[in-house]
Amino acid sequence: MERVKMAEAESLETAAEHERILREIESTDTACIGPTLRSVYDGEEHGRFMEKLETRIRNHDREIEKMCNFHYQGFVDSITELLKVRGEAQKLKNQVTDTNRKLQHEGKELVIAMEELKQCRLQQRNISATVDKLMLCLPVLEMYSKLREQMKTKRHYPALKTLEHLEHTYLPQVSHYRFCKVMVDNIPKLREEIKDVSMSDLKDFLESIRKHSDKIGETAMKQAQQQRNLDNIILQQPRIGSKRKSKKEAYTIFDTEIESTSPKSEQDSGILDVEDEEDDEEVPGAQDLVDFSPVYRCLHIYSVLGARETFENYYRKQRRKQARLVLQPPSNMHETLDGYRKYFNQIVGFFVVEDHILHTTQGLVNRAYIDELWEMALSKTIAALRTHSSYCSDPNLVLDLKNLIVLFADTLQVYGFPVNQLFDMLLEIRDQYSETLLKKWSGIFRNILDSDNYSPIPVTSEEMYKKVIGQFPFQDAELEKQPFPKKFPFSEFVPKVYNQIKEFIYACLKFSEDLHLSSTEVDDMIRKSTNLLLTRTLSNSLQNVIKRKNIGLTEDARHAAEEEIYTNLNQKIDQFLQLADYDWMTGDLGSKASDYLVDLIAFLRSTFAVFTHLPGKVAQTACMSACKHLATSLMQLLLEAEVRQLTLGALQQFNLDVRECEQFARSGPVPGFQEDTLQLAFIDLRQLLDLFIQWDWSTYLADYGQPTCKYLRVNPVTALTLLEKMKDTSRKNNMFAQFRKNERDKQKLIDTVAKQLRGLISSHHS
Length: 766
Fold this sequence. Notes:
By secondary structure, the chain is mainly α. The chain contains 25 helices and two strands. Helix 21 runs antiparallel to helix 22.
């Protein structure tokens, strides 16, 4: 029973499971029915399930049949309606087909028009896009065209600016186009082209400047000459109310403006054409002749391109080369003044240009560079002038050269260049000028002396007398008292020579003008040159005349000429002695002879050196006369009443001067003297000084009056006079002498010697 119950229970469960599966099959999507069917076949009751499935299918068929039977009449009606509709649908289809055919036929042109409209719209869009792109490209092309035009017209600096804008502003906006890439690749080449062309312009400028330096310098020197003339006029007319322009204003530098849009300034080669001005017209400024824009442009271009240092080095190197060429003088420069003038013009032109570059550019050249060039120029110029001026034998050419050098120096000094060395060199040329004058006047004197009759000048009237006096300021009271006709005690060569000496002095003064010398320096220069004229040139001419046998000089005339030589020589010695300035109270012991005496001995040496052409007796007599006069004058100087006191130190200095004179006498200034003959002129001074310096009174007093006395030439009166001067000094300078035994003894000795000298003097007079 239990088995039966269990079987029934399982059968019920299986039936329920099959029912569930059937419901699931009925309600589930066909795609998902596979798992459900698999669960049937996994079990063992699939046969029963199939039976149950068949039963369910039959049930559904019966339901369908019932439903069909219920709706059959409606289905038949619907079919009937559909058959009716099919005929109408065919008619409609035929109408639609016919309408479509007509529409296609009628719309064919419209379609073509629409297609054309479509193409037009497409072209319109393309054109619009193209215009937009061209609007971006057009500024680039315009800038590039502008760049090429600027380069074509040689406006290089604006071209470089345009290139910068093109590269950094315009090309980045259209960088994806091929032509832009070509432009970008071409930019470095354009920069190099600009550099090369601007450098070519600079080279043309430098070459033009080199060729026209003399014109620039000539203009600057003309301007300096005009300013100097104006200064002289103002100095001569101090009351004129016109204002004086300063040199700085007179030489205002013309600053050239760079106009980037001016074709003329771009194409100018560097030198402006200026016609020759008349002398009365205003001379243009030196910088007005030059257009410096090529330098400025090239400097700016290289600065923008980051190659300024390269440009500066190139410019300085080229200008140094040009400086060396300018400073090389032509070999025949000394032949004419124009040779010197052209040489100076080139130098001035070179430095005027460099000075302008210095003040109008920042750092292209600096002061150190200019100073270096000027030092080189100064040394080479001075060397060239020394060499070439030495060939000049014409004093007029030397004088013109001096004036040209002064103008050259003044011109460069205006621009701030130191010219002291040039004026120092002019002092050297002054000596050469003096030599050329001496040679010229030697010929003049020779002609005067050759044409003279050496007869006294006769005058028959007061007018003739005044005419001669006007030529030669001769004063003779006895001659003035004599009645006409009367004769001057000289021939015609005297006033002629006198006038020529004045002309010589005037010629020397001309050279001293504008040398910035003091009146003392000018006087010394004139005195030195005139002394040479008298002692060498005129003296030689006179000596030659005296030696010539065909000159009819009387013995009285020769004697007068010789006496004049002796007198003039002694007067010259007196002039030197007037410069003596002894400190008679000095306590210092000197170590060298006095300056005035050294100059006097030098004068005597040079004078006697030119006496070699005189007759030997005349030269010897002149030399002996001079030495005796010098010795006598020195003795008078020592013993003169104005010298109330003197010290042993002063005697020592005086002794050094006498030794200098003795050394001169021993040197044999004039040949023909026996040994020590000239020294005898100073024997009185020598014995007197030895007596006092050695304080050898015992010997002097013991041997006085004997022929072999060591101090035979010492007069006791002279010795006493000098001793009294030292005695007063000893007393006044030794306030406490009474407290020092040595001083008291010395004073007693001086008193004793003075007393004995007075005894000698008294016995001599008695």
